[in-house]
Amino acid sequence: VRAPFSWLRSYCDPGLTGEEVADALTMAGLKLERLHRTGVGDSAAFVTGRVLDAERHPNADRLTVCRVDVGRAEPQTIVCGAPNVAAGQTVAVALPGAVMPDGTTLGEAKLRGVASHGMILAEDEVGIGEDHQGIMVLDGGLPVGAPLAEHLPIADEVLELEITPNRPDAMGVYGVARDLHAATGAPLAEDPTAADATSSGTDSASDHISIVIDPEVCLRFTARVYEDVKIGPSPLWLKQRLMAAGQRPISNVVDITNYVMLTCSQPLHAFDLDRVRGGRIDVRRARDGEAMVTLDDVERTFGSEAALVCDGEGPSGIAGIMGGQISEVSGDTTRVLMEAATWVGPNIMRTSKALGLRTEASARFEKQLHPELAMAGQRLAARLMVELCGARMVPGTVDVYPTPAQARVVPLRPARMERLLGERIDAETASGILERLGFEGVRPLESGGPGSEESAQRWRVPPWRDSDVQREADLIEEVARIHGLDKLPTTLPARRQAVGRLTRSQRLRRRVEDLLRDRGLYECISYSFTSPAAIERLRLGDLPLLRLDNPLGEDLSVMRPLLLPGLLDAARHNSAHGRPGVRLFESAHVYRPSEPLDAAPADAPGGRLPALERHHLGVLLTEAAPGGWRSERRPADFFAARALLEAVLEVAGLDWYAEEGSHPFLHPGRSASIVAGAGARELGWLGQRELGWLGELHPQVAREWDVPAPAAAFELDVEAVVELTAGREEVYGDVTSFPAVLQDIAVVVPEALPAADVEVAVRKGGGDLLADVRVFDLYRGEQAGEGNKSLAMRLEFRAPDRTLTDEEVAGRREAIERELAGIGGRLRA
Amino acid sequence: MPDLAQLQADAESAIGSAGSAAELEELRVRYLGRKSELTAALRSIGELPPEQRGPVGKQANEVRRALEGLLERRTAELEAGELDRRLAEDRVDVTLPGDPPLPAGHLHLVTQIRRRMEDIFVGLGFSVVEGPEIEYEYYNFTALNHPPEHPARAPQDTFYFAERVLLRTHTSPMQVRAMELQEPPIYIVVPGRVYRPDTPDATHEAMFHQLEGLAIDEDITLADLQGCLLQFARQMFGEETEVRLRPGYFPFTEPSVEVDVSCFRCGGTGFQGPERCGTCKGEGWIEILGSGMVDPNVLDYVIASGYDNERVQGFAWGMGIERIAMLVHQVPDLRMLFQNDLRLLEQFGAGP
After folding, report:
1. pLDDT number for residue A110
2. Which helix H or strand E contains A591, and what residues bound it?
3. A-chain residues within 8 Å CB-CB of B156?
């Protein structure tokens, strides 16, 4: 909200600059957003003047040449274009050198041959109104030549404050002043809503209007009636306050409703009573499809949730949001019905959202105002209606208030306050703060008496803070924020049992991320959402997906079931920006549906998860290694990706193997599944066997995605890896006391037999003496024979307790030969 | 008997001017070989009169040793020269880059900052826990004291899958999940992705990362919160950094505070030279997170796990990781972070 400084200061003036006041308010919880300056640039050359004489300009019909006494030895000659200027008027004058609101400096000017030494001002020229029909005519009693700023707020500062949703009271200038008073101790002027106007006449408001409400949408509806209302412009002081607060002045009655709202947060609505059909008001919910033209000249249609203020024939206004044209106050209005109501906040919020119509009024009502404020608003409005519109206030208020609110009383234990804040604020200080904020101490019921430190003091919450302060913690916050959080000591928790640590899963993820980074990969972070089309492009259209009800767009409408789409997008982006060869990884969640989402419980789910989320590690290469000045660039391929996967799983300590797998987005001949090995299964893990996939991207997918080919990738369920390797320990084995026997063998097997099967056979034959097997060469050709391949393997035999003899090793080699024969293989001589 | 002195002088001159190993070998054979004059002389000593045998033998042996030593030195000299020549031919251009190129990879700058934050709080005694991104409304809102009509629940501010299932809008639901699983005391931080249906601009994204903090114990105070965050700020932004608590409002904390840090770019002055500081917009302070004492209503939701709000209390905070990353690294536009443009990524994340 915008709080004009001059207005704020009229309630509470701590003798500080605008900036200092803004600081004090910021530290009390009303944060300054911006400090604006309004009105003239420098009020020095603005004075009051008296028009001594005014004569028609010799060369221009519409101009008047005035001699104006501005308190100097000689009167100033000023040429004026306003039709209403006349001798004898007291006027506002800008002398040469004056800095106008737009920043220009007023000079001496010759107008049609007559030199003008200044300007007689209209209200818009000093930013205190919008009227440019004529000059401002000031009170004739003002002294001549006095600084204008002493009589009119022609230069002001405006504090634009960010008000948190719990503080509707601070959406009024007096509410801001109350916090300023509490924070600085400077005196606070009497509440402008305290005093009421005097009514006259023998009739009663209820003679003019009858009111029925629906208590589900309206907590209180008050109405007052005014007659003999003279519609006209508001006085300058009021216009200036509205302008500075960001409201356009319209007419005195409308301005009064806005002014009251800007003072104490209670929005009002003025009806032309002669246009309230049937002399009755019926507050009810809209009938579905019911429509009305609102004050902004828009026809609006309502759903059944909207609350309407209706007259005898139909809708007359949207409750708490905006009035209707039908009963709008106009220049002809003489009888006014002033409404001050209390609406149910959530209903206003929903209706305002549904209509896409948020107003100053709805912004306040939606934060739930207290019903007491309605009458406060009526009182301030009444005085202004009488004073500014010459209205007669009809005796009585029609007040429909089915369930009057009870004042809330909240205890405050000093010991509790100290325990929560970590700071002792003495009882006297705390009481002073709460009293300045409008809280009233209530005599404690329990023993101890008012002076006792240990007993709870009880506080009655003022109506304007009722929605925010309901519990002890809320009271403590009030004391703390006004006392000053800057006075809070700085301590650290005692941390009796706190030991900070990362979990094994977190450490392992960091390790593999670092590993990939250290092998030259770049980490990506991609959107968790993707498009159904992207999943189609991966030939995974049948995969069950989690779809958002309200996505930002169709291309971001489903949760990704794998990381690959984001990596492909990143590769495409970089390829389009001159970097076709990339090595990327991402470490993040992927998502699958688990239970039906509509079955979600309304109450505590007891730790359950609504969907299946797994942490994956994904890698994409469109280049295995960059070329150098003496080495060739290595294109991405299956084995480049596999080498990275091997390193990752070695770090994790997982027993695994790759088996041919079919993944529709991969090259059919270069596609594998990553499978947990027997060792992992021995650990009792019974979940999925497949941990991910590995392969070269299907060339067609690469083409459709606009990603350079060949591209190789893998994706791994890191959580599964963590689970499979839980409890894994690194234990010493004696490998130094006795030497190993190393032997190289060449195994000829049919081309189609996977190397992994050969290794299994070799290991089986080698038994527990065979410590390691490693393929180090692959040969196809004459010596292997047609349809065969030859795998060269290095075998390491070792026993922990003795040096192996040649006979022992030879025996194992024979066993290996037998196993190989079993799978159609043989040793090559 | 040859003139041994003359022989030595001749040999020394020849060896000294020999230019190759082959030449030296030839000289060695000529002067010291089996058929050399010196060898012949030594062999024929027995033929001399007994009184000459001693002195001549001695002289001949001295000449032999001298020539052997000289040959050895000369050989070493020649070898060293030859090696120098060979090495000179092996000279490389040291200004050429290494090959094959092994470029350093990069962690994403959000990951790097997240890890730094995690490490700071681990040092302060917090454990790192993680939770689901797809959440029940109960954990994201209800148990965090958001009334049913709270505007944040509206589909304008929250992505939904179904009536009560959504994408978490903050990391705070893990406060409740963690407390359900662990009795007090609890000290945790929760990093992770969060989502809001914001149209992306320089400071908004539909997805970003937060780091939540929660500390509940018997006597945790607001002053402790200030201390923790001061420690964090100094380790993150520099030892000179100050923190400032301002009153704020969040449904799940009471009292609620906004936390500012003194601007680490301008030292809190608001100016960099004569210019207004762009990092803090001239304010001297930068808002980095929202925080407060955990609202008693939130503790009521987990009272079954021992969180009696009369007995235990504590603080919580949530901070945006991207915001801190952008501040620390002076990145101007949030949207750049998720484009995965190598030109951006390679500016960060290779270091510790």
Report:
1. 87
2. strand A583-593
3. 353
Q: What is the mean pLDDT of residues A798-811?
A: 93
| Rounded distance between C-alpha atoms, residue A254 and residue A269, angstroms | 8
pLDDT for B157 beyond 90:
yes
CB B322 within 8 A of CB B208: yes
Residue of B107, B112, B334, B346 to mutate, interface with A, max A Cβ within 10 Å? B107
Q: Summarize pLDDT for A108-153 with one digit per residue, the tens.
A: 888 888 899 999 999 888 888 888 888 999 888 889 888 988 888 8
DSSP character at residue A625: B
A513 CB within 8 Å of a chain B CB: yes
Q: What pLDDT, on the 0 to 100 scale, is given for residue B35?
A: 87
Q: Share the mean pLDDT of chain A.
A: 92
| Residue where the block lists tokens 């150098």 | A628
Q: Tell me if A607 and B177 make a contact (CB, 8 A cut-off).
A: yes
- A78: closest CA among A109, A99, A32? A109
Cβ–Cβ < 8 Å for B194, B209: yes
Nearest to A575 by CA among A706, A723, A434: A706
Tell me, yes or no, if B283 comes closer than 8 A to chain A by beta carbon: no
* CB of A739 less than 8 A from some CB of B: no
Residues A485, B249: C-beta atoms closer than 8 Å: no
Say what the ipTM of the complex is: 0.89
pLDDT the model gives residue A175 = 97
Answer whether A485 touches B (CB < 8 Å): yes
Residue A83: CB atoms within 10 A of its CB come to: 11
User: Cβ A601–B136 below 8 Å, yes or no?
Assistant: yes
In three-state secondary structure terms, A71 is coil
**B109 neighbors B216 (Cβ within 8 angstroms):** no
pLDDT digits (tens, 9 = 90+) for A460-514: 999 999 999 999 999 999 999 999 999 999 999 887 667 899 999 999 999 999 9
Residue with tokens 């737009």: A102
| Alpha carbons within 13 A on the beta-carbon side of A643 | 8
Given a contact cutoff of 8 angstroms between Cβ atoms, the answer to whether A686 and A700 are in contact is: no
At A277, is the secondary structure helix, strand, or coil? helix
d(CA A721, CA A719): 5
Rounded to two decimals, the pTM is 0.88
* Contact call for residues B321 and B210 (beta carbons, < 8 A): yes
Q: Where are the beta strands (DSSP E) in A276-413?
A: 280-285, 291-293, 299-301, 307-310, 315-318, 322-323, 336-343, 392-393, 398-400, 409-412
**Which residues of chain B neighbour A494 with C-beta distances below 8 Å?**
217, 219
Contacts of B133 in chain A (CB under 8 A): 528, 589, 591, 613
